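Structure ticket #2291
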Amino acid sequence: MQGQLDLGKVSKILEAIKKDSLSSFKHLVENREYLSLCYGRFPILSLCYLWGSWRIISKYETQLAQIKDYIFVDEDEESYIKLKKNAKRALRLFVGDGKIIEPYEMLAVLESNIRLQRYLKKYQLDEKEYKRIERIYLMTRKQETSINNGRIKIKSEKISAGKLATIIVSTFVCCVLIVLSSLFLHLTTLVPNGTQDHPYVIRNGESFENLISETGYSVLDADITVGALDKDYNGNLNGNNHTITINDFSKPIFENMKGYIHDLTIVINNCTLNAEDHLSPVCVNNDGTLENISVVINNCTINIVNNVEESGTSRYISLLCARNYGNIKSCKITVNNLTLNGVSNVNGCFGAITGYNGNLVDSCSTLEGNITSDTIDIGGIVGENTQTGSVVNCINNSNIKQETSVLTWSPNVAGIVYTNNGLIQNCINNGNISAYQTGETTDTLNVFAAGIAGVNNAVINHCKNTGNIIVESKSSIVFMGGICAYSRAQSIYSRPEINNCGSIGKAIIKNNESLNTYCGGIIGFNGSCLVLLAFTSWNLETDMDTTNVYCGGVCGLINGMNSQGNYYVKSDGIIAIAALVNNFDNIVRLENDEGTYITSVESFEELRKTEAFWE
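Resolution: structure written out below.
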C-alpha cells in the first residue's frame, strides 16, 4: 500500500487533523485505507488527541480505535515537539524502532483522565497495556494509579523521590538495552546486501561483472576498466561520478536496460564496431531511466553489417541507447572523431543520444566534435523521433557531415532529429550541418539538410539554429532549411507545425547548376506546414549560377502555407522580397501576400525588435 499512497493526500490529512477540519478529513479518507496511516509513532487517533481534534474524534473515534495494523509514513516534527512538551520523562518510553504511541497512551500523556476513563470502558486492554498507563503517570506526574474493571484510580499524593529514582533507573536500563540491541542490528546490516541503504560496492572490473547482474542497488567506488557484457539489467547503478573505460568493445554493456543508471562517465577508446543489429555501446534497448551519463568516444568507427535479405530494413545506431522506450535525462556525448559506415540496402539511422526515441529525451547534449557518415542518416541528438517521442531542452554542438557517392542513397542530416513524428521543443543546434551527394545518377533522389530536423511531420516548438547548412549535390534535388528541410502535411487532418523558431547562419551551396535547390531560413520545402512567429537572418553563399537556386528568408519551395508573424533580414541571394516559390506556377510571392504574413527587415538589430525574436 505504501508505494501506492498519494503523498499529497497524506500531507493534507495531517493538516486537516491539526485544524480539526471534519469536512476536509472526511473527503480525504474516502478511501478507508488512509484511516490506517501512522505518522512515524503517531496513529491518526493519537494525533487527534494530541491536537484536540474533537470534531474528527466525535465522528471517527470508534473506527480509529479498532485499527491495529498501520501504514507507516514519515513522522511530523511539529507533532513530536508537542508530544515532547507534554510527555516529559515519559518520552523515553517511546524511544526505539517500532515504538507506537497508542491512543490510550496519548490520553495518559495528556492527563486526559475523563476521556481515558471512557476509552477504557469502551475498549478492553490487557495487563501489559494497563502497566504502560501506570508507568506514564508515574514518570510524568509522580502519581501512582490502579486500574480495575476498566476504571482507573489515580492517587492524589506524589510518590517519594527514592521510589521515583528506582523507576527512572529501571526505565533507563531498559532504554539502554533497546539502544544497544538496535545498534547491534544496525552494525550487522552495514555489510553490502544490494539494498538502497547498503548497496553492492564496485571497485574493479571483476566486481562490476559479478555484481552488475544483480537486480538490487550498486554503487561505483572507483574508476574501472571493463569489457563488453551484453547483459540485461533491472537494477539501480549509481556511478557516483566515476568513470568506466572500455578499451576492448565488441558488444554493448547492456542488451536490455529496465533499471536506473545515473551519475556515470563511460569512455570508449579506439574501437571498431560491427553492427549486425541495432547497436549502442551502453545499452541497445532502454525501458528504464538513464540520467546524467556522459559518453566519451575517442577515434571510433561503426560499420553496419549487411546481413539482411529484404532491402530497406532499418538499423538504429547510437552512442548511448539504440532504441529508447523509457527516459533519458541530462546525458552528454563527447565525440572525438566518429566515422559511420552503412550499406545501401539498409536504412541506417544514427542519433548520438538514441537512434530511435519512443518516449522522452530531456536536457541532453552533444558536445563539440566531428561525426562523419556515408550511408547512415544522422541526427545530432536523436535519429527517428516517433509519435510518442519528445525531444526537449537539447543542444547539439558537434559538426555533422554525411558524404556519399552511392547512387541510390539520399543523404539526410540534421542537428537535432533527422525525422520527427513527435515533439521537438526548446532545442538548439550550434554545429555545422553538411550533406554531400557526389554520385552520378538519374534516379529521383533528394538531399535533406537542416539545423533542427531533416523531415518534420509533427511539431517543432521554440527551437533555434546558429550553424551553417552546407550542401553539395551532383545529381539530386536539394532541400535545405535553417530549421527543417522538408515538411509536408500527411492529410488534411494532420498538419505539421513550426512555432516560434529562429535561424541565424548561412546556406552554403556547391551544387550542379542544372539542379534545383530550395533553401529557406526556416523550411526548404513547405507542404502546408503552419509557421508562426519565425525569425531568420539567413545568408546565401555560393559561387555557382543561381538561376535554379530558390532561397527564401522563410521558405524555399512552397505548396500551401499558413503563417503569421514571421520576419527575415534582407540579404544578397534572397530572391525577391519574401522569396517564396509557388509549386504550381513558379511565381515568387511578394512580401505580406495574402495568407503568408512574412515581413522583411533591413538589419539584424531591427529583427531583434520584432515580436518573434528571442535570444
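Closing remark: The two ends are 48 Å apart (CA to CA).
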